[in-house]
Amino acid sequence: MIFRIRHGTKEDAAAIARLATELGYPAPLDAMTTRVKAISASGSDLLLVAVGPANEPVAWLQAHAAQILESGVRVEIVGLIVSTEARRSGLGRSLVDEAERWARNIQAKTLVARSDIKRTESHAFYPALGFTLAKTQHVYRKTLECA
Questions:
Q1: I need a surface site. Which of 60, 94, 96, 114 has the fewest CB within 10 A?
Q2: Distance CA 109, CA 3 (A)
Q3: 1 pLDDT exceeds 80?
Q4: Is 12 buried (19+), middle (13-18) or exposed (0-12) by CB count in 10 A?
C-alpha cells in the first residue's frame, strides 16, 4: 500500500485519538481536537500524519522544538504512533526522516526521542535510524489542578 505524509489537521483528531488509544493514551475527541488545533498553530511544533489512499491517518508523529540553555535548539519527538496493521512498513522511518528534515531547517543541533522501557520494539528502531542511547532517567510527574 502507498502512503503519503502530510501535516495533521483538526479533521484528523478522531484518527489521532484512535491511534493514541491503541498505544494506551486515550483522550476524548474534544480534548484531542483542541490539542491538534493548538499544535498546528504553534511555530515550535510539528504534527505529521501518514495516510493511505482514503486519506485516513494510520500513523502520526509530533515533534517539539525548544531552546535549551545547556544545548541550544533541539527537537524532541514527543509522540510517534504507527497503527498495528501499518507497522514494519517504513512509515515510522519516513515520519522520523521528515522530523529530522524539519529540525535541520530550523537549525536544531539535536534530535531527541524518548521511549518507555516497555516499548521494546522502539529500542531497536531508533538506533537503526542513527540515534544513540544518551541516558536513562526517571520521569517524575505531578498533576496540576487548573482554575
A1: 114
A2: 29
A3: no
A4: buried
Cell of 90: 517504513
**Helix and strand totals (H; E) in the chain:** 4, 5
**Second CATH level (architecture) for the domain 4-128:** 3-Layer(aba) Sandwich (3.40)
pTM of the predicted model as reported, rounded to 2 decimal places: 0.91
**Residue with cell string 497503527:** 83
Cα end-to-end span (Å), the chain? 47
Residues near 90 by beta carbon (within 8 Å), at least 6 away in sequence: none
DSSP 4: E
Rounded distance between C-alpha atoms, residue 122 and residue 116, angstroms: 9
